[in-house]
């Protein structure tokens, strides 16, 4: 009975993770409540994952990553990349992948990708090169670079923690560096040759044309006898007709209204709405619709500009609608459209719930873009303006990072204490403020990893792990022996990372794989490491967070990832299956 309950919960979790109808942290915590309520796991087991040292390691890495970004070190590196572009685009792309891979070996790959996106989009504009030629290689380099050390991805740290909890020797800081380097090298060679030829080249367009705003925006002239006169722009009768106010042209001056702006006679209101709504508005008294009067200059003037902004991982706008977040009041920018996974959303924008990686077309005064440029909650994707390089503080953070790695490698301190010390030192030495350090931590990811660790305990306690392990062994052993069974687990992990996060998929498969290894008399650590690496090379679809981040800024299509990522994933699975038995004999 308990096996059926646990496996049913797993299936429900997979569906909810895939559909994103409920936030992943709520799904995770709800599962823990049910499992503990049914006494499949004890309260101690339910919350043990949240108090594990690997949670401290992951949180500390987030803080150190944010401190490095705060000092402007990576922006400094991108400025140097611009000089390489004058010599060779191939050399620049190779350098981007190498730098990203090295940095990602010691920082969370999603964080590294997010840190480089804005600079690289700006760089692509500067050298007149499509961002689509740079961003997918960036994401892949960050993902594969994370396979080179234990701290390269949260998945690695979580798997090591689970392995230690199972009574096995935890994975060393550089234990996977050999096979990780080969994986990264193979991925880089692929992207510089086969992958580069398949990368799409999406030429830049005028933003209004790209988002097809001309079909949905028009000018409304307020006649002298209009009942709209004196009404507040954002609460006028026009807004009740599902029209959105963009800006106002008054006495030849084009400006953005605020919440205090009132409509005057002869105002020209720039409004957005679907065609059916605009046809109905024509019947409204006191106004005149200027058919086909819209020109691109109406949306962008000397005092008003259009730009794209992206929702980064640490943004508190995620899972909130544009209306709930009071976007206009908070940032002083008007949202005209939302680009998500190749689809442009233009209607009922206020009710659109924002997701990680969404790109918003916004309109605002130039000074407003300067004010929000360093915000943690939105990233402006336009001409790159490097953060002032704080050399002294940058060197302090690098020194703290290096000392933590050295102390952990030499086992002078436990890894958790070493990296926590480095994070605290960065705050004490004012390389980053306490508030920014707190905001840098991805609490949703920590809840997911802590909760899925407990789910692993439920798989063991209920007998679900043993049940599945016996089934997989019976099916796969006659086909390919121990290697065949291991390959089956790696492929299953890759498939499961499509609807679930990498860490969650690895932690679901891990208890089953460890049980199977014990039944076969094979090395459980070899199985754990293969699954851990398999979770990191799943590049078939853009569901990996680093790929989600580059999807819209790169103007990619879903098929771009399948076409380029599938052969690379197959190639890397082959590398894992060949080298894991060499480094960790079965």
UniProtKB/TrEMBL annotation:
Membrane-crossing segments per the record: 54-79, 91-117, 138-159, 171-192, 394-410, 440-459, 479-496, 503-521, 527-552, 564-584
Name of this chain's protein: SLC13 family permease
SUPFAM superfamilies in UniProt: TrkA C-terminal domain-like
Matching InterPro entries: Cit_transptr-like_dom, DASS-Related_Transporters, RCK_C, RCK_C_sf
Entries under Pfam families matching the protein: CitMHS (PF03600), TrkA_C (PF02080)
Location of this chain's protein in the cell: Membrane
All copies of domain RCK C-terminal, residue ranges: 205-287, 294-378
PROSITE patterns in alphabetical order: RCK_C
Topological relation to the membrane, as annotated: Multi-pass membrane protein
Organism lineage: Bacteria, Pseudomonadati, Bacteroidota, Cytophagia, Cytophagales
Alphabetical keyword list: Membrane, Repeat, Transmembrane, Transmembrane helix, Transport
């Amino acid at each position: 009975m308990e096996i059926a309950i646990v496996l049913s919960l797993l299936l429900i979790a997979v569906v909810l993770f895939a559909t994103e109808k409920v936030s992943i942290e709520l799904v995770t915590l709800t599962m823990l409540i049910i499992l503990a309520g049914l006494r499949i796991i004890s309260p101690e087991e339910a919350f043990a994952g949240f108090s594990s040292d690997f949670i401290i390691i992951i949180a500390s890495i987030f803080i150190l990553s944010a401190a490095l970004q705060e000092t402007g070190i990576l922006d400094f590196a991108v400025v140097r990349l611009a000089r390489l572009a004058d010599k060779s685009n191939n050399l620049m792309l190779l350098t981007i992948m190498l730098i990203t891979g090295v940095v990602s070996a010691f920082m969370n790959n999603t964080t590294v990708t997010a840190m480089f996106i804005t600079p690289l989009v700006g760089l692509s504009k500067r050298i007149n090169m499509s961002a689509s030629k740079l961003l997918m290689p960036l994401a892949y380099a960050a993902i594969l670079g994370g396979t080179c050390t234990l701290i390269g991805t949260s998945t690695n740290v979580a798997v090591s923690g689970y392995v230690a909890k199972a009574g096995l020797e935890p994975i060393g800081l550089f234990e996977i560096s050999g096979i990780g380097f080969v994986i990264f090298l193979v991925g880089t060679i692929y992207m510089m040759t086969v992958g580069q030829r398949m990368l799409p080249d999406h030429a830049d367009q005028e933003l209004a044309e790209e988002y097809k705003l001309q079909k949905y925006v028009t000018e409304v002239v307020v006649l002298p006898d209009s009942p709209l006169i004196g009404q507040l722009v954002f609460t006028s009768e026009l807004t009740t007709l599902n029209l959105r106010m963009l800006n106002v042209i008054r006495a030849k001056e084009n400006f953005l209204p605020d919440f205090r702006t009132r409509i005057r006679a002869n105002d020209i209101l720039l409004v957005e709405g679907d065609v059916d709504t605009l046809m109905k508005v024509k019947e409204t008294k006191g106004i005149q619709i200027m058919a086909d009067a819209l020109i691109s200059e109406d949306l962008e003037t000397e005092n008003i500009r259009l730009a794209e902004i992206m929702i980064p991982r640490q943004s508190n706008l995620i899972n909130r609608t544009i209306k709930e977040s009071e976007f206009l009041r908070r940032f002083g920018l008007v949202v005209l459209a939302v680009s998500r996974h190749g689809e442009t959303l233009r209607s009922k924008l206020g009710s659109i719930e924002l997701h990680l990686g969404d790109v918003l077309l916004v309109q605002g005064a130039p000074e407003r873009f300067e004010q929000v440029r360093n915000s943690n909650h939105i990233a402006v994707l336009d001409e790159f303006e490097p953060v002032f390089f704080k050399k002294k503080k940058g060197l302090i953070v690098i020194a703290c990072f290096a000392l933590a790695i050295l102390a952990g490698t030499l086992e002078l301190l436990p890894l958790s204490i070493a990296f926590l010390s480095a994070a605290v030192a960065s705050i004490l030495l004012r390389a980053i403020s306490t508030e920014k350090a707190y905001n840098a931590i991805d609490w949703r990811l920590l809840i997911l990893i802590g909760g899925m660790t407990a789910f692993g305990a439920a798989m063991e306690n209920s007998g679900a792990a043993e049940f599945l392990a016996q089934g997989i062994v019976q099916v796969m052993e006659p086909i390919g022996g121990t290697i065949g069974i291991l390959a089956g687990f790696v492929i299953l992990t890759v498939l499961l990372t499509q609807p679930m996060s990498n860490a969650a998929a690895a932690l679901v498969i891990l208890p089953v794989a460890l049980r199977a290894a014990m039944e076969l008399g094979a090395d459980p650590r070899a199985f754990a490491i293969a699954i851990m690496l398999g979770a990191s090379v799943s590049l078939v679809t853009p569901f990996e967070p680093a790929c989600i981040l580059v999807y819209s800024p790169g103007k990619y299509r879903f098929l771009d990832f399948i076409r380029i990522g599938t052969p690379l994933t197959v190639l890397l699975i082959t590398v894992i299956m060949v080298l894991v038995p060499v480094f960790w004999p079965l």
